[in-house]
Design a protein that fits this description.
Blueprint lengths: L6 E2 L16 H5 L3 E9 L13 E7 L2 E8 L11 E3 L3 E3 L2 E9 L5 E8 L2 E2 L12 E2 L2 E6 L4 E3 L7 E2 L1
Parallel strand pairs: 2-11
Antiparallel strand pairs: 1-13, 2-5, 2-6, 3-4, 3-7, 7-8, 9-10, 11-12
């Protein structure tokens, strides 16, 4: 069960914008997304961690392994839950499938998405609204599932 807390993941990354002085719809449609997978540790705590292997979560894009996130054993309940960021990787525009899989158990999650994702979307804000490229992909990890939440510009945990 997700803990009730409001946390904004402090982003050390800058807003990513396509080159050029005018940010037109066509420029955004060709943007490359530096995808940042963030794993939230929703695993149950242990009484002791010696001898307990960390959870290793592999991130694949379109069937190709891109990176692995390691979630160590924990004896402490944390509010908000611990977050583990994978090494980011660039993804071109178009439809893609992101798959996450815990290597030891085989538990997996999958999400099909079309990139780039712009926040706010065109048509939902004034033409001069400040837009950012959504780059953060939150994944809640526990013993039963890997739940991919959907691409966001910032990660808000409730």
């Amino acid at each position: 069960m997700r803990l009730a807390a409001l946390v904004i993941l402090a982003s050390c990354t800058k807003s990513v914008q396509p080159p050029g002085s005018e940010l037109t719809r066509s420029m955004w449609q060709t943007a490359v997304t530096p995808l940042e997978v963030i794993v939230f540790d929703d695993y149950p705590t242990k009484e002791s961690c010696p001898g307990v292997a960390p959870h290793r979560i592999e991130v694949s894009l379109d069937g190709r392994a891109m990176t692995t996130v390691e979630v160590p054993c924990s004896t402490t309940v944390r509010v908000p839950p611990s977050q583990f960021k994978a090494a980011s990787f660039e993804v071109g525009p178009g439809k893609h499938v992101v798959r996450v899989r815990e290597l030891a158990s085989g538990i997996a999650g999958e999400l099909e998405l079309e990139l780039p994702v712009i926040d706010p979307p065109f048509g939902e804000a004034d033409d001069d609204a400040h837009r950012v490229l959504a780059t953060k992909l939150p994944v809640w990890a526990n013993d039963e599932e890997l739940d991919i939440q959907g691409l966001r510009a910032v990660v808000i945990v409730m």
